[in-house]
Amino acid sequence: MNTNNITIILTSTINCKDSIQYLIQNDTGERLQSYLKSVKQWLYHTNFPIVLVENSGYTFEELSKEKELFKKRFEVISYVESDLETAKYLRNKPSKGASEIYQINYAFYNSKLIQEINQNTNFIIKVTARFFIPELEAYLNKYNLNQFQALCQYNRNRCEMVGSHVQSFRYIFHHNLINNKGEYDGHVENIYRERINNCKKKLRCKLFTIEPTQRGGATNKYTNI
User: Which CATH architecture is the domain 6-224 placed in?
Assistant: First the structure.
């Protein structure tokens, strides 16, 4: 019997802050279309509960059909980062990762799907919303994720996918990007790598093949995660 109860948090930003560094795809229409395509794939081709979080106030009305059709396992959470007092520290910060890790926390603690409907969630996996991983569900079904504190993708220097047992959530996804030397590091992939390496029980996933997908911070496309 599979004991996994995984919720996927998809992180997205339609309207990007001017202060963000390493941003190539800043056309809102292009960003929207990449998200819509991926989200629909997660909904129609997996059974995961999906929380889509967006931090510039976009509510994805294009997904109104899916919001109703998958209402028992799909939720959209939208907020404006600059309007939130708890996100005040992010103003003018150039780190995409700092804003994303705030998103993950905001989604986790404000999601009705996680906190009310699916209270038995035992594992949270963050995936950057533009990416869909067709093999992920079947792959994870081979494991009892209660045996792991954290999960990472095959290439530990990337962070399109990061996972945590709910008991380790506050550590893996802590919003302060402080490394093992006690220094701030705005490159969140470094922080995730250190935190996961610090865990005794971690799952390093296989290399997943994905549809060629345009990155947000570079001109090339990724074909694996």
Answer: Alpha-Beta Complex (3.90)
